[in-house]
Amino acid sequence: MPGTLTVRRARLVLRDRVVLGDLAVEDGVIARIAPRIEGGGEEIDADGRLLLPGAVDLDWRFERPDELGPRTRAALRGGVTTIVAAGLAEDREALAEEHDLAGGDVVTHLGIWQRASAERGRLPLAERARGWLLDGGLLHDERVDDWLVGAERVVVVDPVDPRRLQSRAVVYGDHADVLDHARICDVDSAVAGVSRALDLARRHGARLHLLHVGSAEEAELLATANVPRVTAAVRMHSLLLDEQDTAELRERAVTEPPLRRARHREALAEAVRAGHVDVVAPGDRHVPYKHKSQPWPATPVGGPAAEWLVPLLATCVPATPWPVLARAMAEEPARIAGLTRKGRLEVGWDADLVLFDDRVGAEIETIHSPSGWSVYAGRATGGRVDLVVLGGRVALRGDEVVGGVWGDLV
Question: Rounded to an integer, what distance in angstroms lies between the CA atom of residue 157 and that of residue 193?
């Protein structure tokens, strides 16, 4: 069981400011925040480093439950303490069994989305599920209304219609280049997907969360739509990379949404600062390099990213202040998934903490992800994760995952 832990002399990233002080943890919960705390138990001298809430990532997919173990050990190094993954099972009993099985090797906290299937019709939502996951095909299907009527929990959606993208790909023929990926997955298709989600949310009053937006036009649509029950995420690559990186990295840079012109990257960063885009997500995918190196369009989209979340987002400071980033990567995704008491440095909240040194920087060299590669390799970071506390216990110290510390099923 967790005992008493005190972090001293930290720059505490609170909801609206950064303050110098101490934070005490008792039995896995933040017990006190003050300029100076007296007490016993384990002590950690932050020496002016940042103390952040652990990141909550709602955007995980997996092919087998056993792959989540090594992937979450990598994610812990990026400051991710909770993941919510798309379950493979669709019915309640099988989903619960899968949740148990996956949790046996996952070092972070683990939640699960229940997949919706148009073919099987609406099934009862499992008690354990954080909500429904709808893919783009179902979102644009006439049967989608069945899933949104009376939805009590959040419905997570991939907004883009795959049939529209398939029809666009045909136009480009057999000789399309990797640089055509962004033209096929064009801005108009992305905007149409967001518009569809907004219309459905208005019609049914459902809470919808868009897993990704990637253009200035989508951000503008969200800012002006005035549909408060719709939230949206931007994946980290849309804030840090643009089409020039596609020209250099080729197949490795094939992502969803695709890398676009720099104006989109700048507009999305402003949307995060203004609160029109609520969440920043790594967009982590397990794609072995032998698959990623296949010539486009055979190459899968995405790649490993969670391992470098906080170090790379630190490069966005000071244009995007730490309290804004902390809300976008921790508090808001926790709120969307109904994970109360996660994602904030506040008394009574869970002690999932990240000690981050933003006074040092280095290029990304070491890769722990089982995928074995990174689109960010060689990229400069804004610091390093030195310590991760999971439920009041140290789970990562330096570059080493501490054995015997496991997250909870949430």
Answer: 10
Query: Which tokens go with 34?
Result: 């003050």
CATH 3.20.20.140 for the 54-340 domain, yes or no: yes
Q: How far is it, in rounded angstroms, from Cα 188 to Cα 263? A: 16
User: φ, ψ for residue 8 (rounded to 5)?
Assistant: -110, 150
Q: What are the structural domain ranges in the chain?
A: 54-340
Peptide bond between residue 282 and the one before it cis (omega within 30 degrees of 0): no
Note the pTM of the prediction, 2 decimals: 0.95
For position 379, what pLDDT does the model report? Answer: 94
CA distances from residue 390 to 56, 63, 350 in whole angstroms, order as listed: 12, 26, 9
Q: Tokens 């400051």 map to which residue? A: 79
Judging by DSSP bridges, how do beta strands 4-13 and 18-26 pair with one another? antiparallel
Which tokens go with 93?
A: 């009993």
Question: Where does 56-119 have alpha helices with state H?
Answer: 68-76, 92-103
CA pair distance 410, 394, nearest whole angstrom: 19
3-state helix, strand, coil in the chain (%, to 5): 35, 25, 40
Contact residues for 101 (Cβ-Cβ < 8 A; gap 6+): 65
Q: Which two tokens stand for residue 39?
A: 């007490």
Task: Give the distance, in angstroms, between the CA of residue 57 and the centroid of all CA atoms in the same chain.
Answer: 3
**Could you tell me the two tokens for 386?**
């030195």
Length of the chain: 410
In this structure, what token pair is assigned to residue 360? 């040092």
Determine contact, residues 249/221, Cβ cutoff 8 Å: no
- Token pair of 200, please? 């459905």
The whole-angstrom separation of Cα 130 and Cα 186 is: 31
Determine the average pLDDT of the residues in 85-91: 87
When pLDDT is cut at 50, 70 and 90, the band that residue 45 belongs to is very high
By C-alpha distance, which of 73, 31, 78, 81 is closest to 56? 81
Question: CA–CA separation, 68 vs 211, rounded Å?
Answer: 20
